[in-house]
Amino acid sequence: MMMPAEKSDNLFCSLAGLVDERKTSTTVDSDPSKQAVKISVRNLNFFYGHHQALFDNTIDLFANQVTAIIGPSGCGKSTHIRTYNRIFELYRNQKAQGQILLDGEDVLSPEMNLIDLRKRVGMIFQKPSPFPMTIFENVAYGLRLHYRIGRNELADRVEMALKRSALWDEVQDKLDRPGTELSGGQQQRLCIARAIAVEPEVLLMDEPSSAIDPVATAKIEDLIEALKEKYTIVLVTHNMQQAARVSDYTAFFYNGSIVEFGRTEQIFKKPAMKQTEDYITGRFG
Amino acid sequence: MHKLSTIKTTASSRDQTRADLLFRGFTALCAIGLILIVVGIFIELLMNSWPAIKKFGLSFLVSQKWNPVPGIEEFGALSSIFGTLATTAIAMLIATPMSLVIAIFLVELAPPRMAGIVGGAIELLAAVPSIIYGMWGLFVFAPFMQDHIQPFLGEVIGGPLFEGPPMGIGILTAGIILALMILPFITAVARDVFLMIPNVVKEASHGMGATTWEVTYKVVWPYCIHGIVGALFLGLGRAIGETMAITFVIGNDHSISASVFSAGTSIASTLANEFTEASEPIYLSALFELGLVLFGLTVVFQIVAQLWLRRLRKSTGGRA
Ligand SMILES: Nc1ncnc2c1ncn2[C@@H]1O[C@H](COP(=O)(O)OP(=O)(O)O)[C@@H](O)[C@H]1O
Ligand SMILES: [Mg+2]
């Protein structure tokens, strides 16, 4: 996609403006070195059969921050985050090499307990994926998997998760209706409720709002803001406005490599790399 | 190239509403024709069996007498109904769990190459004509039952269910042959049902930290149950009316016995065996009434299936 220079500069300014606007309201420690690293990725390579999709990805994700992953379609954003919970292992010919440390524990090591890992690292998919069961059971799903808890406690936790995902008001009197009856945006928040019900440490979101309407998207963005207090969030998005609005850090991916990683402010205001600047100003994409 | 606007359109010769109307009329005609055929078959059966219905009344359904000797004819369907239901039950009991396990294995666990080969073999098996199963059953499987399975069952389990001399043929053998016949059929349909689940739903479930087993019975299963039950009823429908595979091995004896080793008969095999022998009108009419019973049985199973599915759909939420 090519844009006339003038127009793209406008976009550039408006993105930087978005960043400015938001930073006044949130307080984040501006020195990255003081922040706790939640996930530390070192030299991650990824293969689909013989096709290498990621090249030496190295990145640190900070606890209780929102890290946006941006980049053109097919650059490896999904592939990258799908290594964090090893969901790619469902497919036979996919392989990851390198190191991913979650609180210092090696995620890719055979000793890592997959069930425990996936309880700690929740995932939201691009397409809302409610299970074929009631709204209540959707949210209770993970709780039932991982805990032996009584009826009342279960109901309490389901309610809490639905409240935290800003869905409670809309569904409280139809908890026994099928989850598939909700609208797309509601389904996505149901999936978020389902993920946070088990109190994970990290939430991976793969373009969570790309399949839903703008109003629902705004709700999800608000939700992300609220959730980062408890969780470390990785947000894949191809929508740069969204990255600028909600993230603290941004990583720019291109052709399977991490071109640039830094504070969202810096990435959008004065990107160090020419490629990054070209992408966020819309000179290609 | 011409600009599209300069090319003459075909709109004038293509009347949208008329074409639609024609098409709709044609499809409606086909649908109505289908219903007429079913109703026609029913009426024909009813008319032909009327003499028997008049003569034997309800006792036809509960009597196990089957005496075609001219002059003292007496016909009761019970032994045939019993044989049909017993062999079908045995077949479903064996085929249901096996085919579901195989289907899940093919979709979720087997390496792709193996899934391909086994899947192809299963489709091939489903296409084998039932007479082949019947012949194989009589010449290969029945002797095997007689020499190994029946003595084993009689000794290890015994009781009234597994009693009597091992004859090879009989209700159990027929049920097993039937199971083998419908197994590939159910497996193939069930596999296609499992394959239809979107990956993202499975990933979401694994992503919550579920094991393959948990994903299967908590998410895949409710997602598929509609189709699976459909597959089972297709299998049942085949089993209940199956003729050739059973006629060869069931023994064709109009009697009812608790033991699955004993010979019996089914509605379909009675019909196949005796139509050529039925000289007297009342004999023929009794056979038609048997056909009517089979027709009724299938209809009842279909209705039960539909009602059950409707209830399921309500409880699992639309998708299922
Ligand atoms: N299942 C797959 N098999 C083979 N190649 C794949 C598969 N999924 C993705 N890829 C390839 O990996 C690269 C990165 O894809 P992806 O991570 O989906 O990109 P993004 O999420 O940034 O759009 C692309 O070149 C894509 O073609
Ligand atoms: Mg993607």
Describe the structure.
The complex is a heterodimer of chains A (about 280) and B (about 325). Chain A is of the alpha/beta class and about 280 residues long. Chain A contains 11 helices and 10 strands. In chain A, the strands form 2 sheets. A 6-stranded mixed β-sheet of chain A has the order 6-7-8-3-9-10. The model of chain A is unreliable at about 1-10 and about 25-30 (pLDDT under 50). The relative contact order of chain B is 0.14. Chain B is globular. In chain B, helix 10 (about 265-275) packs antiparallel against helix 11 (about 280-315). Chain B contains 11 helices and 2 strands, in the order H-H-E-E-H-H-H-H-H-H-H-H-H. Chain B has 2 domains: about 1-55; about 80-315, MetI-like (MetI-like fold). The N and C termini of chain B lie far apart (about 50 Å). Chain B has a two-stranded antiparallel sheet. Chain B has about 325 residues and is mainly α. In chain B, a hairpin with a 6-residue loop joins strand 1 (about 65) and strand 2. Chain B has helices at about 15-55, 60, 80-110, 110-125, 130-155, 170-195, 200-205, 210-240, 245-250, 265-275, 280-315; strands at about 65, 75. The interface of A and B includes residues 115 and 178 of A. The structure holds adenosine-5'-diphosphate (ADP) and magnesium ion (MG). Magnesium ion binds near residues 77, 78 and 206 of chain A.
Order of helices and strands of chain A: HEEEHEEHEHHHHEHEHEEHH
Strand order of the largest sheet of chain A: 6-7-8-3-9-10
CATH architecture of the domain at 5-25 and 36-129 and 202-280 in chain A: 3-Layer(aba) Sandwich
CATH superfamily (homologous) name of the largest domain in chain B = MetI-like
Q: For the record, what is the CATH homologous superfamily label of the domain at 5-25 and 36-129 and 202-280 in chain A? A: P-loop containing nucleotide triphosphate hydrolases
The percentage of residues in β strands of chain B lies in under 5%
